[in-house]
Every structure is written in C-alpha cells, then in structure tokens.
C-alpha cells in the first residue's frame, strides 16, 4: 500500500516510473541515486507492505529516517522513482504491478544488470548495454530506440552449441528482472528493461554508464553539460574509510 507523506495523495497519471531491480553490483540502485540527487527529486511517499523487510537508516540525500520503499518525484512532474533498499519477499512482483496499474503510469522503465562473465559469444560484440521492451512499449517507443542504435537483449540457447534448441531469454544475476518483464508482457504494460553487463566490485562506473545510456532516451538532463550528474553524499561511505597512513 502506498503511503503519501502529505495529506493530499499525489497523482501519478501520465508519469514515467523508473524501477531499479536488485541485481548484480546494485548498479540500478546507484543509477537511481544519481537521478534522484541530480534532479533534486522530492520524496512523496513510501510503500507499506509485508513484501519488504522493514529497514531504518539515514536518508542518503538528507538527514531524516528512511523507510523500506520510497517514491520520489521531480518538481516538474517528469518521472517517479520507486526505490527499495531492503530485501523483498514473496508476492513483491504481484503487488508492484497492482501499484503500477492503479497509479496509471504512462510507462515503466526497469533498470537492471547482468553477470558479464555469463555472456554468450554474440553478447561480447559491441556495447555491454541491452534493452527489452514489451509489445505495448515496442509500439510506443520501438522506433525511437531503434533510431538510437540500442541493442536488444539476445535470446540464447539453453545449452551452448545446441542450435536446435529454442532460444530463450536469460538474465543471469538480474534478480527479478526477467519476472518483471514477463509479467509486464502478460499485463500488456508499456514497459522497458535497460540493463548493463557487469561484475561485482566498484560498480560506480557501471552506474554512470547505465544512467547515461538511459538519458539518451528519456533526456532527463542536458547531454551538453560536462558535470551533468550529481553524486549523493552517501557515496562517500560506499567502501568505508580509507587505509590508515600509519601502516606505511
């Protein structure tokens, strides 16, 4: 259930929902961090549901306490971010789609990542970025993505070298990404998945790569600006404190 922070619930009709999937390297969460921080998005509510494990912590953008699932919006009303930082449990996908459907978002963009070491030979060619679109999204935005030269996620044989097998969608390390996309197709939602192949480690560069790629399509910020993304202060604590100088 969505709980607004103000007395009057906000209207999400016609907005774009950006949903970061918990996947390898937490690249999607880092990318949304950049979007929320750069656009100075206002927190409009949170999700109260048994599908999220309760968590309390400092606000990465301010100083107040944090809830498990948050929703941020831009002042101009361009897009919303559904940002969850705690571990999800059963029925999360079903209830997420209930929220999307009842809120009447114009489109949903799922940000995600996938294990780089599990790429097929054909996926080693070109950019490490891929996208998926539901039939509804293909009708609405397919030509625009094609014009941008984006590469669609390949369907692969379940067994390498078995050419007779029917190719299928595989997103190793993508968490709920495949399930969200499959449900989006069944629900006839206008949904796209934008992901990057990466490895665990320092995934800040991957986050910049992903959000820059997304910006080519959604035009969230001006591409001509040199320092177009604002890094949140919480990123100073991504890897803890540095080594003590006295060890040398």
UniProtKB/TrEMBL annotation:
Gene Ontology CC: cytosol; nucleus
Keywords: Chaperone, Membrane, Transmembrane, Transmembrane helix
Any one biological process term the GO annotation gives: proteasome assembly
Keyword Transmembrane helix: yes
Bilayer-crossing regions: 15-36
InterPro entries on file: Proteasome_assmbl_chaperone_2, Proteasome_assmbl_chp_2_euk, PSMG2_sf
Taxonomic superkingdom: Eukaryota
Oligomeric form and interacting partners: Forms a heterodimer with PSMG1.
General function of this protein: Chaperone protein which promotes assembly of the 20S proteasome as part of a heterodimer with PSMG1.
Family that this chain belongs to: Belongs to the PSMG2 family.
Protein known as: Proteasome assembly chaperone 2
Originating organism: Gadus morhua
């Amino acid at each position: 259930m969505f709980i607004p922070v103000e007395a009057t619930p906000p209207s999400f009709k016609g907005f774009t929902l950006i949903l970061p999937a918990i996947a390898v390297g937490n690249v999607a969460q880092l990318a949304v961090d950049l979007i929320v921080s750069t656009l100075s998005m206002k927190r409009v509510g949170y999700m109260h549901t048994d599908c999220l494990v309760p968590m309390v912590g400092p606000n990465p953008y301010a100083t107040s306490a944090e809830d498990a699932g948050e929703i941020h919006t831009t002042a101009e009303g361009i897009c919303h971010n559904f940002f969850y930082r705690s571990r999800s449990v059963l029925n999360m996908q079903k209830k997420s789609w209930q929220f999307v459907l009842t809120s009447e978002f114009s489109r949903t963009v799922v940000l995600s990542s996938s294990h780089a070491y599990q790429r097929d030979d054909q996926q080693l060619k070109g950019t490490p970025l891929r996208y998926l679109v539901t039939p509804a999204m293909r009708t609405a935005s397919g030509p625009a993505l094609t014009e941008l030269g984006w590469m669609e996620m390949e369907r692969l044989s379940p067994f390498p070298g078995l050419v007779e097998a029917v190719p299928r969608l595989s997103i190793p390390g993508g968490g709920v990404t495949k399930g969200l996309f499959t449900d989006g197709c069944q629900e006839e939602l206008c949904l796209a998945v934008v992901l990057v192949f990466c490895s665990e480690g320092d995934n800040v560069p991957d986050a910049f790569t992903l959000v820059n790629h997304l910006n080519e399509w959604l035009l969230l910020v001006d591409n001509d600006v040199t320092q177009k993304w604002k890094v949140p202060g919480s990123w100073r604590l991504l890897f803890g404190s540095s080594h003590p100088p006295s060890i040398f």
